[in-house]
Amino acid sequence: MTVSTSIRINHTLYEQAKHDAAVEHRSIAGQIEFWARVGRTALDNPDLPINFIAESLASLAESREHSIPFVPRSAGR
Are 21 and 30 spatial neighbours (Cβ–Cβ below 8 Å)? Predict the structure, then answer.
């Protein structure tokens, strides 16, 4: 069950979230939540590059329905 809460944010930040949400196929709330997760993870793991964090979190959110499992080459020998 998802609980929603209304918050006030700067209009410029809202417009940036609206733009990025459209590009990333997320809702505006989903985009702001993604940014928050990236920021929280970056603060918790300061040695990781921010792009690695963002790409890892985006990957975790993707559907695994059509994914192909990784099989190392050495497993086939």
Answer: yes
